[in-house]
Design brief:
This protein is an all-alpha fold. The protein has helices spanning 2-10, 15-30, 35-52, 56-73, 80-188. The protein contains five helices and no strands. 0% of the residues are buried.
Length: 189
């Protein structure tokens, strides 16, 4: 122990730092890891920090927050990527639905505008439409009167035709009588 204390003092390592290393080694051993695996993880963290221009403590803080969010969401930390992918898919689906709703809404507004234009035209042309309806009614009445007039004219034609027929028969009789009269006159003379 004395040798260890001298060595620590010589390497300027405090007792707190040494206790941390001992605890850290115990954690590694308890979790079935070795120093090479731990060095690999630390190297990967440092490389990530370098590539993305962030400090290691910021990365550790972000990792801690990721674990806290996973716990808050009720998922395991290693399921976070899958959870994020599902979230992105949900967002994409919702955006598609939103776009469909916007498209439907635009179509509805266009239909409303068309109906409003038609209504405006109707209001402008309302008197004309009313006149057209009145003219149609008048034409219907005139059509009925014309039909009645045609029926009356036909009835008169039949009567006149009958009279012509009667007159023609009367004229033929008169002619016959005149011929008889002439023949009688010739006999008498």
């Amino acid at each position: 122990m004395r040798i260890l204390a001298v060595k620590l003092r010589k390497d300027d390592i405090g007792l707190d730092d040494f206790a941390f290393v001992v605890r850290f080694q115990r954690i590694i051993k308890d979790n079935g890891m070795n120093e090479a695996q731990l060095e690999s993880i630390i190297s990967d963290f440092l490389a990530y920090c370098f590539k993305n221009n962030i400090e290691l403590d910021r990365l550790i803080y972000t990792t801690y927050n990721a674990f806290a969010l996973a716990e808050k969401a009720g998922i395991r930390a290693h399921d976070i990527p899958e959870y994020i992918d599902k979230g992105r898919k949900t967002i994409d689906e919702l955006q598609l639905q939103r776009q469909e709703i916007i498209t439907q809404r635009q179509a509805i507004f266009e239909e409303i505008n068309n109906q409003q234009r038609k209504l405006s035209e109707y209001r402008k042309n309302g008197p004309l439409i009313k006149q057209i309806k009145e003219l149609r009614l008048a034409m219907k009445g005139m059509s009925e009167r014309l039909k009645n007039s045609q029926e009356d004219a036909e009835a008169w034609r039949r009567k006149v035709g009958h009279l012509y027929t009667e007159k023609a028969s009367d004229q033929e009789r008169i002619k016959e009588l005149e011929e008889k009269l002439e023949s009688l006159n010739e006999k008498v003379l």
